Amino acid sequence: MQPYYKIILSVIIVVAMTILSASAGLPENSDSDIDNMKAAFIYNFTKYIKWPNLDNNHVFKIGVLGNSEITISLQELAAKKLIERKSIEVFHFKAVQDLKFCHILFISESENQNVLEILSTQGNRATLTIGESEGFCERGVMINFFLQDGMVKFEMNSMSLEDAGLKVSSQLQKLARIVQ
After folding, report:
1. Structural domain count of the chain
2. How far is residue 3's CA from residue 62's CA, in Å, rounded to a whole number?
3. Cα dihedral 113/77/83/146 (nearest 10)
4. The pTM is what?
5. What is the pLDDT at residue 125?
6. Exposed e or buried b for every residue in 131-167, given b needs 16+ CB within 10 A?
7. Residues in Cβ contact with 114 at an 8 Å cutoff, skipping those fewer than 6 apart
8. Is 5 a domain residue?
9. Alpha-carbon separation of residue 15 from 20, 22, 49, 110, 114 (angstroms)
10. pLDDT, tens digit, for every residue of 138-169?
């Protein structure tokens, strides 16, 4: 009968450890996990958005403006993936004056005060603007990330997308919270 006691004791220890670790308040997602999720979203957006004259480019350009570690996640992704059979280049811009053409421009939360200036520099370019700060879509950013119940979600400003000449799949629109 002694082996049964060892098995029961082992089961009790495993159950107790599981309960303790679940209630220990472990962090939900680290910042790098969230950046990796956002980078994956950005990559997947390219499958549901069509840029005009994309065939004229040999490289797909993604820019990051401001203080954000998402640059690292995007560079790791760019090393492994292609977009429309094109290699991906990731650029980091420290200031609005440094901006150059990109197919996607990620605007970090640190640029909250400069959003309108940033958008005015884009003019009629077919650049998908993506942000991560409350109110970005209302000010004209095309897609904006937010956290809800520990999950990365996104909202979309369809008028801004249309004005830039970007065509968005209805499948992607169904996943977004639409902002006017």
Report:
1. 1
2. 61
3. -40
4. 0.82
5. 86
6. bbbeebbebbbbbbbbeeeeebebbbbbebbeebebe
7. 96
8. no
9. 9, 11, 47, 44, 52
10. 999 999 999 999 899 999 999 999 999 999 99
| Stated length of the chain | 180
Does 9 map to a domain? no
What is the arithmetic mean of pLDDT over 111-117?
Answer: 95
**111 touches 99 (CB < 8 A):** no
Backbone angles phi, psi at 104, to 5 degrees: -130, 135
Residue 138 structural domain: 27-178
CATH of the domain at 47: 3.40.50
- Say which amino acid occupies 104: I
Burial track 96-115 (b if 16+ CB lie within 10 A, e otherwise): eeebeebbbbbbbeebbeeb
- Sign of torsion over alpha carbons 143, 113, 124, 126: negative
The amino acid at residue 128 is: L
Confidence of residue 7 (pLDDT cuts 50, 70, 90): very low
What's the rounded Cα separation, in Å, for the pair 67 and 148? 22
Place of tokens 């992607």: 172
Amino acid identity, position 28? E
